[in-house]
Automatic annotation (TrEMBL):
GO terms for molecular function: ligand-gated monoatomic ion channel activity. It comes from Enterococcus hermanniensis. The keyword Signal applies. Keywords: Signal. One of its GO terms (cellular component) is membrane. This is Solute-binding protein family 3/N-terminal domain-containing protein.
């Protein structure tokens, strides 16, 4: 479950405003309002839904070889492809660093952002979000050699615990493993390597993601350590502020797909694909 900090979002917003230097605040607000009001119509007219993601979070978004070509796939990608289909357009997915996924909305480079993003209070101040489409639990990954050592939150005191930079897992480490030393790392696979090598004692990640990496790395395991669930941890699609029409349309599609069990199916199918790709 991912969370860009309020500071990063604010800096991204300031950067966007600076790039528009010289415009009055009233004209900027008017332009932004007009853009978001026409967003759904513009997407349908263009025939393209521009999607921002960070494809390093299997089974939600990741790279794999399809017919000899590298391709971005995952549960989130299946979801946006179905959304695009129901809107009568084609999804155009752009892979970027997670730290820039939400900033791409402010910069007008994408229509929506989907990357296992949590709709936190801080983010809602800068962006609109759809209803939650998936709510997974969080777990701690450790090296099996530490199975009898890391058995509780207290046992991680003064230990180095990794979390993806800009993610909600950073807050989980700060608030639930308070005495641990947070190590923020940009890519989840890099954290896995460090836990494997012993340079990190543990890492916090979403359960489905953890299961994929543990399956691929026999020296790792999910620790028997409970983390408190949070409503902030559910996944939602991020939209530019003021995207009421697009938000309403996406919520209808998400509800329909959840009622049909499609999103759980996307997660299961891509979990299996991620495991197969790692063989």
């Amino acid at each position: 479950m991912k969370k860009i900090t309020g500071l990063v979002i604010t800096l991204a917003a300031l950067f966007t405003l600076a790039a528009c230097g010289g415009s009055s605040s009233s004209s900027t607000d008017s332009s932004s309002s007009a853009k978001t009001e026409d967003q759904l119509a513009d997407i349908k007219k263009s025939g393209v839904l521009k999607v921002a993601t960070s494809a390093d979070y299997a089974p939600f978004e990741f790279h794999t070889m399809v017919d000899g070509k590298d391709k971005v796939v995952g549960a989130d990608i299946d979801l946006v492809n179905e959304i695009a289909k129901q809107l009568g357009v084609k999804a155009e997915v752009s892979d970027m660093s997670f730290n820039t996924v939400l900033a791409s909305l402010n910069q007008g480079k994408s229509d929506i952002a989907i990357s296992a993003i949590s709709a936190t209070k801080e983010r809602k101040e800068q962006f609109d979000f759809t209803d939650n489409y998936y709510n997974p639990p969080q777990v701690v990954i450790i090296n099996k050699k530490n199975k009898d050592t890391f058995t509780s939150l207290d046992s991680l005191k003064d230990k180095q615990v990794g979390a993806q930079k800009g993610s909600i897992q950073e807050d989980i480490v700060k608030t639930q493993i308070k005495d641990a030393k947070l190590v923020s790392i940009e890519k989840v696979p890099n954290m896995v390597v460090e836990v494997n090598s012993g340079s990190l004692d543990a890492m916090v990640v979403e359960k489905t993601i953890a299961e994929s990496y543990v399956q691929q790395n026999p020296d790792l395991m999910v620790a028997n350590i409970d983390l408190e669930p949070s409503s902030d941890e559910a996944f939602a699609i991020a939209l530019p502020k003021g995207s009421e029409e697009l938000q309403t349309e996406l919520n209808k599609i998400i509800k329909k797909l959840n009622d049909e069990g499609k999103i759980d199916e996307y997660v299961k199918t891509n979990h299996e694909l991620a495991e197969k790709s790692a063989e």
